[in-house]
Specification:
By secondary structure, this protein is α/β, with parallel strands linked by helices. The chain has 10 helices and 14 strands. The protein folds into 2 domains: 200 residues, Spore Coat Polysaccharide Biosynthesis Protein SpsA, Chain A, CATH 3.90.550.10; 82 residues, no CATH class. 38% of the residues lie in helices and 21% in strands. The longest helix is centred in the C-terminal third of the chain and has 16 residues.
Length: 303
């Protein structure tokens, strides 16, 4: 059995994918497998699928999360790492992440990713900003890993049902962070910077209308779970925040999306069902994974 399964979604980027694969093949020194997902758009011109990697072709309309979930289900290792096309790794980049996951209570590891064009480092999503999506460079307030370098225990993905089905990588990240926060799953940080990528790949896109709207939908859904740590402010206060957001053009689209999304209850039943299923799954293996806690006293306010 390989010690690590590395998932690399194609994302219609042949050159980025092949550069990332080259980086992996040149640096890996452990028994591992590389799984590439694509929607039929990758022709595998070098015949990598014959012996170097596992190629999984999905439906043409499969979302980003659906592709990752298919790859995770096919993975043979108990530990999964996601590397996005265009990212680069250095020698033994996986050592710290795997060492941390020797602790069976750790569900996922945030890999510190260096900006290949600057000195910036991106670690994960900020717990202080949830349910909004903000990337943090501080290891003290990490809510969940980025889908660029993050390590995940396969058992955790199976018990949680995998990543939230979305075409946007950023949405899948924020929902996983909310789920982790709600269930008190243990997240750790690999501090050594051994993965590098351009900012857009490492940190993802800046929040705009669509991400803001989905964050609002998710906040509405998670806030209605009994004993939730998330509390959504009144409509009047949210509208006040929107008005102040108009002073900054960079935040207008996100704030507008947030206000529209917070009124949308379309995800409430789906999220409640998801959380209940996860709670039941985790309850059956209390000794092998961090245990979800009920009745949180410290409620986080979603501004």
């Amino acid at each position: 059995m390989p010690r690590l399964s590395i998932l690399v979604p194609h994302l219609h980027d042949d050159s980025g994918l092949e550069a990332t694969l080259l980086s992996i093949l040149e640096n890996r020194e452990i028994d591992s497998e590389v799984i590439i997902t694509h929607d039929g758009s990758y022709g595998d011109p070098f015949g990598l699928g014959q012996d170097e990697v596992v190629l999984i072709e999905t439906d043409a309309g499969a979302s980003f999360a659906a592709q990752l979930n298919l790859a995770a289900a096919a993975a043979c290792s108990p530990v999964i790492q996601v590397l996005l096309p265009g990212s680069q790794v250095v020698g033994e980049w996986y050592v710290e992440g795997l060492e941390i996951l020797r602790n069976k209570r750790v569900a996922a590891v945030c890999q510190s990713v260096g900006d290949s064009a600057s000195d910036s480092v991106y670690i994960g999503l900020s717990s202080e900003s949830l349910p909004h999506r903000r990337v943090t460079s501080s290891h003290r307030n990490v809510a969940g890993p980025l889908l660029c370098g993050g390590f995940f225990r396969k058992k955790t993905l199976k018990q949680t049902g995998g990543w939230f089905d979305s075409h946007l990588r950023e949405v899948s990240e924020i929902e996983f962070a909310l789920l982790v926060s709600e269930l008190d799953l243990k997240i750790e940080v690999a501090h050594e910077v051994t993965v590098f990528a351009p900012k857009k790949i490492a940190a993802g896109c800046e929040a705009g209308y669509e991400i803001g709207r989905t964050c609002g939908q998710l906040a509405c859904a998670y806030s209605e779970i009994e004993g939730s740590v998330l509390e959504v402010d009144s409509v009047a206060k949210r509208l006040g925040h929107l008005a102040s957001g108009l002073m900054s053009p960079k935040t207008v689209a996100e704030r507008l999306g947030w206000v529209m999304g917070i009124r949308d209850r379309s995800l409430v039943k789906a999220i409640q069902s998801r959380v209940q299923t996860v709670l039941e799954n985790l309850e059956t293996e209390r000794s092998t994974i961090a245990i979800p806690l009920a009745g949180h006293s410290d409620r986080r306010r979603a501004a």
